[in-house]
User: What shape does this take?
Amino acid sequence: MVQIMTNLGLRRTGTTLRDEARGRRIVRRVGLQLALLAVVTLAFSATSRAKASHIGASRHSVAAKIRYCEDCHGLSAQGFRGYYAIPRLAGQQTQYLENQLRAFGERNRPNPIMSNVAHVLRPAMIKAIVAHFQRLHPRPAGPGPKRLVAAGRSIFENGVPQDNVAACAACHGPDATGHGEIPRLAGQLYPYVVKELINWPKERGQNPANPDTSLIMKPVAHSLTKRQIEAVAAFVSNLR
Assistant: This one.
C-alpha cells in the first residue's frame, strides 16, 4: 500500500514537473512573439515616418522647381519681356504644358535650355508644376501696341478668308484661353507670340514620325504676313 502511494506521488510529481516545463516553454514562446511584434511595430513606424518624410521632401522639391521656373518665366510665371522674350505660363492649359515639356525633353522641340530642364522631370513632377501654373492669373506682363489691337481682333475672330486662314477663335476659343492641347494665348507676351509665329516651321513639329497638334498651325503661320502676325499678337497679349 505504501509502495502504491509512493508510486502515485512520484507520478504526480513527474506530471507537475512536466506541466511546469511546458508552461515555461509557452511563456518563452509568447515572450518571443511579443518581442517580434514589437520589432515589427517599430519597423512599421519607422517606415511610416520615412514615407511621411519622403512626401514632405516631394512637396519641397515641387516648390523648389516652381521657384526655379519663375527665375526665367517671371514672378507668378507671367513671362519675362527682355532681349529674349520668355513666355507666360500662368493660366496655361495643363495638357498643353505637359505636351510641350515632353517635346522639349525628347528633343522634338529644339531649345537647349528647356531640353536640359525638361528631360530630368518625372511625370509626377510635371503634373504638379503645370497644375500650379494653370491656377495663376496675373496681369499681362508684355502687351503689344494698342494701335494694332483692332486689326488683330478681326483676324482672331474672322480669320483671313482670302488667304484661306481660319479664325484663331475657332480653336483657341472666343476668349483665347484655349482648352486641352490647344494653348491659352490670352495675356501671352507680345514679342513671344510674334517670334513663335514667324519661326513656327523651325521650332514646332520637328519630328514628322511623331506628329503633334503643332502641325495644325504650320499652314496658318506660313500664310500670315509679318504685319498680320504682329496684329494678332497685339490683340491676344492685351487680353486677360
Q: What stands out?
A: Confidence is low (pLDDT under 50) at residues 1-13, 30-57. The chain has two domains: 1-59, 74-237. The two ends are 113 Å apart (CA to CA).
